[in-house]
């Protein structure tokens, strides 16, 4: 039975009064504790007058927060999100100073730095009180969600959602491999599962299966294939394109926009979410009109395309802003403590986690999660048909702490709470919802290539080319071996010593570099060496087109054998003029992919079934570099060697990085037939499209994309394409999964989940002309 309106209004007034009272008491307590904060005149006041002053200040602060804060956030919308998060405290403190100035007779005063502390504590106290009162009253919580849904239906003139087909929420848990998920769903030593919500689903309503990624096991390739149906010509997370002379990076907004446009041309449609869809926290839009934290539109500016507008929907509530800011700082402290503990325990493998990393982690595991989860809840309450969101927190933490570390398990537990909250909100939505969980790749553990062998892949390449390498790399066994191979191949005697600058030889080089014997003084440019997890890419920019094996051997006779024979390298891919795509391994082993001929033992055998087809596919991409290098893989331990500073990596072949998961409601048809393996992101796209169609959901329109030749579209300059208008619910760029040098990531906020209010937006009418 619905409560009378007067009871509902009365309950609201009681909650407002309770919050006001708590804020007043908090202000009184802080005035007694902090020396630079006072609530009385210079002549002294009675206790009653001080209480009235505190109540006036708390009331004024609350009113300013409700009225002025949204305007401040909108005014600062184009400011970087990380800076905006740190400014929360300053803005709150400024509003408190304004509130104190409104108290008559100058009874309220505080130093600026004290005002920041007082405002933060008061916001946290009022937010905690409001949340406590709502959570304690489950009926009020359910009624509030129901009212929001009813208002939405009234705006659209709908009589109810019972006859609507179910909506679908796709939640991507970035970097969570199938094996890691299975472990998180099992009880351990009489302890409950790390992810109890998902464990309960698997026991009752859902099923799970692994799927196998392409050779490029990273978010750029996987999510492009899942959302847009094509990830062709994406060989890695970053690569050099000779035609344009640019380095493409999957999480760079301009690059993401180009990749999205190319995929739309090849797939001949705009994406999985074209009809009544929402894309939250992703690299690509998927064709959705409703966007939040989507990287491919992050570089756009304008009235309808400000990618940071998703922050406004969340940070417009000062309580949300304060709580997230406090949680952000708590996460920074947590990371510093965890990295310090790892150092004291001398845990291995281990990478450096100082500098800006604690802040990058906090942004990924707190800010992005809050904004994305709140946006998804708004979509659900709006009755949107298809929602795809990426939660990247685990991926970021696992890169630096390890896929099975205690730090990573804590992130999984907080992700589970976010999933539980989304499921709870779905119970009050105007239509039924099916929740599908999936990941885009896993992660494989292992010491870095540099940590294991004392030199970077770039050092090894330069040594094999006869170019100067760093003094430290030259002294390592690997570096010395490579230099010796270069000397032998070029038939050059080793010089007996080095000059006073610390390097041998003929042309200008860095002060810490030594020249491998046999270094040739040429005018050619140095090779470009890029890393994508345990996958390395080598290009020679001065040579147009893809170099053949024969050209490489003629130019750098020692290079290919130096790479293939290194113990940290699993195999090398090149193109032969005589045999096509060829995989090179140690001791002269070759696997000629186009003919199937194998000389010696195939270097791909250790990487398991499917490796040959995955490498063959990538070998014929137009953007495949001159040389591709996959690190060694130990099947006994499941370890690889990342060419980046990561002890949990993905991007190539080897181990759990290539085996993500797909978890779906049992009422949907299985992804593949019994006994069949689900392979490739493009195949996953087809499965998700089928599931949308099974519920009479949106049919992805074919022939939508331009029919211009792919070659033309791919060669186009990386200008940012026109993007769909963003909704009033969160819309923003993802960020970060990372910088150009290393991917970042996202996750849960504090111990609880994001709080209401949720922004409710009416569903977008599909644009039939697109």
Automatic annotation (TrEMBL):
It comes from the Bacteria. Residues 717-733 have a biased composition (Low complexity). The chain crosses the membrane at residues 12-34, 46-69, 81-103. The keyword Kinase does not apply. Residues 472-502, 717-770 are annotated as: Disordered. Gene3D superfamilies: Alkaline Phosphatase, subunit A (3.40.720.10). The keyword Ligase does not apply. Keywords: Membrane, Transmembrane, Transmembrane helix. Residues 481-498 have a biased composition (Basic and acidic residues). This is Phage holin family protein. It comes from Streptomyces rugosispiralis.
């Amino acid at each position: 039975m619905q409560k009378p309106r007067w009871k509902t209004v009365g309950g609201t007034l009681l909650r407002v009064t309770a919050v006001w009272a708590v804020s007043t008491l908090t202000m009184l307590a802080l005035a007694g504790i902090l020396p630079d904060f006072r609530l009385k005149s210079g002549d002294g006041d009675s206790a009653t007058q001080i209480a009235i002053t505190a109540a006036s200040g708390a009331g004024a602060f609350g009113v300013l927060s409700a009225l002025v804060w949204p305007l401040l956030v909108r005014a600062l919308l184009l400011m970087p999100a990380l800076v905006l998060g740190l400014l929360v405290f300053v803005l709150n403190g400024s509003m408190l100073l304004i509130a104190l100035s409104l108290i008559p007779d100058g009874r309220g005063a505080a130093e600026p730095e004290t005002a920041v502390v007082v405002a933060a504590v008061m916001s946290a106290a009022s937010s905690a009180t409001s949340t406590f009162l709502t959570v304690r009253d489950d009926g009020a919580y359910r009624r509030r969600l129901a009212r929001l849904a009813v208002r939405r239906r009234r705006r659209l003139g709908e009589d109810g959602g019972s006859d609507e087909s179910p909506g679908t929420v796709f939640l991507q848990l970035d970097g969570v491999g199938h094996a890691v998920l299975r472990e998180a769903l099992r009880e351990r030593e009489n302890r409950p599962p790390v992810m109890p919500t998902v464990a309960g689903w698997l026991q009752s309503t859902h099923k799970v299966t692994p799927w196998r990624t392409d050779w490029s096991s990273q978010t750029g390739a996987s999510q492009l294939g899942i959302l847009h149906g094509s990830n062709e010509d994406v060989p890695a997370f970053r690569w050099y394109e000779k035609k344009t002379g640019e380095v493409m990076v999957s999480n760079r907004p301009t690059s993401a926009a180009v990749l999205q446009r190319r995929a739309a041309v090849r797939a001949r449609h705009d994406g999985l979410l074209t009809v009544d869809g929402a894309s939250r926290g992703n690299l690509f839009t998927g064709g959705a009109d409703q966007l939040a934290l989507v990287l491919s539109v992050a570089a756009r500016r304008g009235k309808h395309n400000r990618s940071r507008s998703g922050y406004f929907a969340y940070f417009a509530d000062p309580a949300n802003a304060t709580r997230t800011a406090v949680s952000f700082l708590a996460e920074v402290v947590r990371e510093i403590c965890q990295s310090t503990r790892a150092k004291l325990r001398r845990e291995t493998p281990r990478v450096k986690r100082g500098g800006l990393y604690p802040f990058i982690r906090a942004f990924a595991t707190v800010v992005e999660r809050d904004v994305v989860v709140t946006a998804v809840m708004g979509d659900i309450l709006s009755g949107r048909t298809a929602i795809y969101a990426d939660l990247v927190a685990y991926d970021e933490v696992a890169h630096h702490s390890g896929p099975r570390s205690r730090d990573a398990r804590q992130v999984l537990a907080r992700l589970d709470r976010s999933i539980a909250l989304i499921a709870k909100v779905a119970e009050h939505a105007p239509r039924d919802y099916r929740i599908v969980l999936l990941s885009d790749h896993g992660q494989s553990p292992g010491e870095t290539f540099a940590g294991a062998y004392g030199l970077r892949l770039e050092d090894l390449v330069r040594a094999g080319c006869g170019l100067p390498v760093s003094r430290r790399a030259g002294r390592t066994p690997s570096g010395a071996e490579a230099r010796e191979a270069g000397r032998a191949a070029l038939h050059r005697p080793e010089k007996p010593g080095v000059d006073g600058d610390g390097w041998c030889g003929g042309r200008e080089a860095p002060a810490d570099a030594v020249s491998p014997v046999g270094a040739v003084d040429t005018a050619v440019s140095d090779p470009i060496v890029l890393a994508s997890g345990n996958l390395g890419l080598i290009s020679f920019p001065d040579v147009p087109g893809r170099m053949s094996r024969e050209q490489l051997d003629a130019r750098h006779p020692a290079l290919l054998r130096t790479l293939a024979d290194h113990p940290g390298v699993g195999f090398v891919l090149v193109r032969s003029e005589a045999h096509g795509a060829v995989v090179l391994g140690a001791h002269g082993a070759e696997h000629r992919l186009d003919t199937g001929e194998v000389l010696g033992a195939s270097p791909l055998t250790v990487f398991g079934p499917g490796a040959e087809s995955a490498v063959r596919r990538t070998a014929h991409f137009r953007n495949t570099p001159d040389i591709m290098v996959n690190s060694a893989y130990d099947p006994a331990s499941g370890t690889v060697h990342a060419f980046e500073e990561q002890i949990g990596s993905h991007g190539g072949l080897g181990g759990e990085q290539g085996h993500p998961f797909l978890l779906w409601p049992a009422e949907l048809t299985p992804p593949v037939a019994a006994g069949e393996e689900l392979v490739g992101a493009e195949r996953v796209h087809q499965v998700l499209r089928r599931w949308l169609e099974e519920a009479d959901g949106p049919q992805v329109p074919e022939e939508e994309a331009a029919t211009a030749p792919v070659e033309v579209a791919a060669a186009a300059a990386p200008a940012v394409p026109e993007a769909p208008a963003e909704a009033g619910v969160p819309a923003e760029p993802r960020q970060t999964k990372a910088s150009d040098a290393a991917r970042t990531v996202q996750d849960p906020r504090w111990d609880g989940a994001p709080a209401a209010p949720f922004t409710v937006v009416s569903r977008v009418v599909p644009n039939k002309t697109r």
